[in-house]
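#data-curation
PF: Archiving a pair of folding outputs for the training set. Convention for this channel: one message per protein, sequence first, structure tokens after, nothing in between. First:
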Amino acid sequence: MASLMQALVALSLLSMFVCDVHGQLSSTFYAGTCPSLQQIVRSTMAQAVNKEPRMAASILRLFFHDCFVNGCDASILLDDTAAFTGEKNAFPNRNSARGYEVIDAIKSNVEAACRATVSCADILALAARDSVALLGGPTWAVQLGRRDARTASQSDANSNLPGPSSGLSTLISSFAAKGLSARDMTALSGAHTIGQAQCGNFRSHVYNDANVNSSFAALRKRNCPSSGGDGNLAPLDLETPNRFDNGYYRDLVAKKGLLHSDQELFNGGSQDSLVRQYSANNAAFSRDFAAAMVKMGAISPLTGSRGEIRLNCRKVN
């Protein structure tokens, strides 16, 4: 009987610990310590997006690329040091990840109001949410309380992020490895309703793939020659690249997805029906996207005494 009681007590303590770990992020985490935080992030993001609408997509992409590499810990923001080679120059980020200076500006404004209180990881999560909302997309309560990593890994960034040539099974398995379902993956891919992509990332699709609208392919080839011009840009959403809506899914149904990985979501596979649903129902897409962003934002956060609150997002304290 004594051993049974001990086992029950141990099980109870374990369940309390598990609940505590998962419950440490909270939308009111800074309510007492930095009540102006969300207004500061929103106003600084608004200035950046008003200056360059594409910046919204860049910040959203930074958050995705951060969370998929060892969790949402702002490791992508760290510059290389003598101690480690970071993520900024990993293949998926080199010469394409951008917006670091916007996060620097937000951090500076937050530090002026609340010294050494708010993590760069939480600032990035809030900035990503505001990027979506500022271009007409949904909003959601961002869970907060993350702390910042003290290191970063270029090799992990190279291996953890699905690329533009990924097939559907690779996309599904990559997201599943982070605790995200195929539905989450399809909804989060809708982030491509804003922003642009480089010719080098979509050339093979428009020149070689069969599942692409011929007039669309001809249009994209004008600015993406068969060789050279790798950095030339094209909108990921053909019609409304600066508005967060369901246009991306309408493009997929019309076989006008810019990347191979985009069109894989509507190519006779398991996600076709969901793509059709999103293409016809912006509210359904917005709802699922917001929910998936909350789930993605909870990937392996550093909480409690782990990590630190960086004073400069580019370097450890």
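PF: Second:
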Amino acid sequence: MSRPEDTLPPDLFYNDHESQKYTTSSRIQAIQTAMTQRALSLLALPYPSLILDIGCGSGLSGESLTASNHTWIGMDISASMLAIALDRETAGDLFLADVGQGVPFRPGTFDAAISISAIQWLCNADSSDVSAAGRLNRFFEGLYAALKRGGKAVLQFYPKNEVQRGMITGAAIRAGFGAGLLEDDPGTKNVKVYLVLTVGAGAEEGGADDVTNVVRGLEGVDIIDERRKGRGDRRSGGGEGKKGSKGWILRKKEQGRNKGKVVKADSKYTGRKRRPAF
């Protein structure tokens, strides 16, 4: 059985008929509510917060945010889904936008972000002039900027395979996030994957808001956090973290390739110091 994202782009797949069918399904309503509550429990927000709902659809996840006294803003690429959300008089503000083109909000706007069953769509490139890697990079870089320092995000998604799981997690780490992967019901057809992200603050002190403490001790958790290693290199001013070193140059070139830029090929001369010319 083919997955929805393998058939059509999301703005075409979720037309008026599919959007109405999705929203009125009691099964989907129950699943969406349960996953949103799970995301909120992982966020562990101590007070009512401003939350970005990525791929908000018709507002099913937003209902749980409103019930928990949070203020939220929703983004979705499907005009049909957002029209239903308006008809249902959801409490959040709504934006028609493609998150694969970025997250168009002022830096540091949101306390937290959630996404339910949406970001796996970014792994598909719908035309020859875009790439899945580029869309994922733009999304995570935009999300990182839009969150406050110390902000958190929980993104539930359905990876098709390990390649997609790696693409999504890798893009989050490159953007600067500390990342933890949590699986509910692992090894079953009902498995649900949650990517738990933290923006920078408290990483080195192991602060209460850091991702490694948010999900530490939970079953089925794999923590991937390379922020401390990178900061240590920069503080020491040596090794591969030093600006202008071979490691630094290779890392910058790899970042350029991931963004689809044309980068010179690596060679034995990459990063080699030139002798003074007389």
